[in-house]
Amino acid sequence: MNVYRHTVAADGEWHTLHLTGMIIHVATRHEHMVELWSIHHDDRPTMKRRLRVYRTGQYVPEGCQIVGSAITPTGMYVWHLIEGCPEDTGEDDGAGCGRIICTFCAPLGPKR
Ligand SMILES: [Zn+2]
Hints:
By secondary structure, the protein is mostly beta strands. It has one domain (about 1-110). Helices cover about 0% and strands about 45% of the residues. The chain has no helices and 7 strands. The chain has strands at about 1-10, 15-20, 25-30, 35-40, 45-55, 65-70, 80-85. The strands form 2 sheets. The protein has a 4-stranded antiparallel β-sheet, with no helix packed on it. A 3-stranded antiparallel β-sheet has the order 1-4-3, with no helix packed on it. The termini are far apart. The structure holds zinc ion (ZN).
């Protein structure tokens, strides 16, 4: 087991990471980037994780989950790392992935 570091740009886009373990910390040493640390296991399959950085007060689609928040070095920004369903289209249409059992999309109900 190792701890790996990853970065997600605060660019208003969804980013996909392939992780083998849980995210254990969110912080940042950059003004426009969030860093996260995750457990890595060499012998475990990767899981697709869809992540995006949101500003305070910015609308987050229903079904998304908060991973953590990070204050930038200057204190200018507080970024929020949000995780969405890995199988969603990324259209932000609120429709979800359409699967009946999904920890992200289940609260949205059937695909519209
Ligand atoms: Zn889903």
